[in-house]
From TrEMBL, chain A:
Keywords: Membrane, Transmembrane, Transmembrane helix. It comes from the Bacteria. The chain crosses the membrane at residues 9-29, 41-59, 71-93, 99-120. This is DUF3021 family protein.
From TrEMBL, chain B:
It comes from Fusibacter paucivorans. Transmembrane segments: none annotated. The keyword DNA-binding applies. The lineage of its organism: Bacteria, Bacillati, Bacillota, Clostridia, Eubacteriales. InterPro entries: LytR-like, LytTR_DNA-bd_dom. This is LytTR family transcriptional regulator DNA-binding domain-containing protein. Pfam families: LytTR.
Length: 139, 146
């Protein structure tokens, strides 16, 4: 069973890395304030997305009843890696209160949007499945 | 594929006959396996006594504290088989893993609803509610051809 979960996290890591690299490239093209996308930055980015996926894999086993608590734990996983590794080790931004605050604010907005999109997608998925269940019951 | 259904008056037991030219055909094998699984007898223990029922009667299978339980409409039985063994045996049936500890019978599903953060809540035909973990959502939707 663990194999299946690890596969899911590897896939999540790959998707996260691809999207992060794309967003970073687009921002870099739009305004020349970001660092250039070289091999080192890409490796740093991959390290961070992998660490987030690994952290999420372990924190997933924490038994939490509340949905909000589960989302908050995922938020902590992401913030911890971005702040400690991205900011602290890779020096993506200065480790000062104002910059840390900005990063946390951006992460919060991204997390809220992501959660809303997933919930909206699942709402439609649930409707489709409920229709199939109804059809089966009428057969 | 031709399907012939013949209704007979009670007390005859339901009987299925499959006529096929190629028993090795994947679809035929799948149909035979599904029918065998549905009519398969399952043993479960309760209060020291062994009870027999069919696989189709099971609503869900849950693992709690390294013990595995079979949940029927209004009864719970313990089984010797571990959850991963059930999962392997029920791969091509209406059963699907929905969390680390639960396998659900989609034939006994009443409805599902979306929850915040990617999880779903399944309501069974007996009113019980189960959580579908987001990591098992992909396998769950495949059971419905989505």
């Amino acid at each position: 069973m663990k194999k299946k979960s690890i596969k899911t996290y590897i896939l999540t890591d790959c998707i996260s890395f691809t999207f992060s690299a794309m967003i970073l490239s687009i921002i870099g093209l739009m305004q020349d304030v970001m660092m250039s996308i070289d091999n080192v930055v890409l490796l740093q980015l991959f390290t961070c997305t992998t660490l987030i996926a690994v952290l999420m894999y372990f924190t997933e086993s924490i038994p939490v009843e509340s949905q909000l608590a589960a989302i908050f734990i995922n938020f902590i996983d992401t913030s911890l890696v971005i702040l400690a590794v991205g900011g602290g080790v890779f020096k993506w931004f200065p480790w000062e209160a104002i910059y840390v605050g900005e990063v946390v604010a951006i992460l919060t907005v991204v997390f809220i949007i992501t959660t809303l999109i997933i919930t909206w997608q699942n709402y439609h998925l649930a409707n489709s499945i409920n229709e199939i269940i109804k059809e089966r019951q009428h057969e | 594929m031709k399907i012939v259904i013949e209704y007979v008056a009670p007390p005859f037991e339901t009987e299925l006959t499959i006529k096929c030219s190629n028993p090795a055909d994947a679809t035929t094998k799948q149909i035979i396996q599904n029918i065998q699984n549905i009519s398969r007898d399952v043993l479960g223990s309760k209060d020291g006594a062994i009870h027999k029922f069919t696989l189709a009667q099971i609503f869900y299978i849950e693992s709690v504290d390294e013990k595995t339980f079979l949940y029927l409409a209004n009864d719970i039985f313990e089984t010797d088989q571990r959850l991963y063994m059930w999962e392997a045996q029920l791969e091509h049936t209406s059963f699907v893993r929905i969390s680390k500890s639960t396998i659900l019978n989609t034939d006994k599903l009443e409805s599902i609803r979306s929850m915040l953060g990617g999880k779903m809540e399944a309501t069974m035909q007996n009113g019980e509610k189960l959580i579908i973990s987001r990591h098992y959502l992909s396998a769950f939707r495949k059971k419905f051809g989505i």
